[in-house]
Write a structure and sequence with these properties.
Length: 255
């Protein structure tokens, strides 16, 4: 399981549900893990014992490296590419429609789809080491699928900056200033302690009130089931281009 990666869920006695994912390649996300993440949010969202959900990855210098380039490099047809990128849309939509508040714990760098995960939680904590980058343009496509979630959090101008500067890292302080992160901590121990207290406070709040707030937070995104599928088609088509295949191969050769 460690070699192939995993998604695990836990529920505390007080009702904090945790979704934790891991992949040995910098917590990257192949299609299988994307499916398991979407299923985990759906399952915990329907569990009456769960009052709030926390998303985290297993401890690593990287929170999430985004799409699995190993899997992406092996895809040779549009249907498979579309299905792969739709996996990110399915995770975002599962988080969006989950009736429970989702808290994010971002302990390290987030790239591409990892930034999308951070944007799709309802309230996000990070460490000072959680710099972010949207690298998609450098490998021949763009952050089309995760774009709506990122833009919703940081605004059009900041999303444009991220999308058009794929080689530039933005600091955790920058991400906090733009609204992606709500609070940044010096280290993951301080983050974990604060997040645990905050999650317990939410567990003591009215379930109906929290679910009502969740609906308000995501108001206006009801069309995303269709939108993210359409965006996945754009990414899937571009990822099959000669430019993209060469760029992905060059990236894998350097890593």
């Amino acid at each position: 399981m460690m070699e192939q990666g995993y998604v695990q869920t836990f529920i505390s006695p007080s009702g904090v549900g945790t979704v934790e994912f891991f992949h040995p390649n910098h917590n990257s996300l192949p299609g299988r893990l994307l499916q398991e993440l979407a299923a985990a949010f759906t399952r915990l969202g329907q569990d009456h014992e769960v009052r709030v959900i926390v998303l985290r990855s297993a401890q690593h210098r990287t929170f999430c490296a985004g799409a699995s380039f190993d899997e992406l490099a092996s895809i040779q047809d549009f249907e498979t590419a579309h299905r792969f990128f739709s996996g990110f849309g399915q995770v975002i939509n599962a988080m969006r429609t989950c009736p429970k508040i989702i808290l994010g714990s971002i302990h390290g760098k987030a790239v591409g789809g990892g930034v999308g995960l951070a944007a799709a939680v309802d309230y996000c904590f990070a460490t000072q080491y959680s710099s972010i980058r949207l690298s998609e343009l450098a490998v021949g496509f763009g952050p089309f699928v995760i774009g709506p979630a990122v833009e919703r959090k940081v605004g059009v101008a900041a999303f444009t900056q991220l999308a058009l500067t794929p080689s530039e890292w933005q600091s955790a302080a920058w991400a906090e200033q733009k609204g992606l992160f709500q609070k940044v901590f010096d280290n993951h121990e301080a983050l974990d302690a604060h997040l645990a207290r905050f999650a317990e406070e939410l567990c003591a709040a009215s379930t109906e009130a929290l679910e009502g707030l969740k609906r308000i937070f995501w108001q206006g995104t009801e069309h995303w089931d269709t939108l993210l599928t359409e965006r996945a088609a754009i990414s899937g088509s571009l990822s099959l281009s000669d430019f993209s295949k060469a760029a992905i191969a060059a990236f894998k050769a350097k890593s």
